[in-house]
Specification:
The chain is mainly beta. Helices cover 5% and strands 49% of the residues.
């Protein structure tokens, strides 16, 4: 743990910040309640993968953004929209249960999930096994 002091050149404008390096859980314990802000956008691999009956998709936003998280089949057809809304900076997670937009279970197989947030776009594969 290291604490840094920064002087901004104005009277009474001294600020301190702490750099915490470690796992997410460690950083949260050491942050003294201060929200942890990601430096970049990221889309993590879903877990578990392969999955049945559900999987969790985690992603992080470096600034408030309109987020669209969608599931596609290998033909490129969108089968499910999980998120389509403005979201705050931070780490987010969504659970997908293998259901399409009209409420039916999709077939076993490989699917692509895509995150769009601001100018950031990322895709990953997931595998559903019934």
């Amino acid at each position: 743990e290291k604490v840094f002091d920064i002087e901004l050149g104005e009277a009474h404008s001294k600020r301190s910040f702490k750099v915490i390096i470690g796992t997410q859980e460690y950083a949260e314990r050491q942050s003294e309640g201060i929200p942890l802000v990601p430096f970049e956008y990221a889309l993590e691999q879903n877990y578990p993968n392969p999955f049945n009956p559900e999987t969790r998709i985690r992603y992080q936003l470096s600034k408030r953004s309109h987020v669209v998280l969608e599931i596609y089949n290998l033909l490129g057809q969108r089968i499910r929209t999980l998120v389509d809304e403005e979201q705050r900076t931070g780490v987010h997670a969504v659970v997908w249960t293998g259901i399409n937009d009209i409420g039916y279970s999709v077939a076993s197989g490989v699917y692509i999930y895509r995150l769009r947030a601001g100018d950031f776009i990322s895709n990953r594969k997931l595998l559903l096994i019934h």
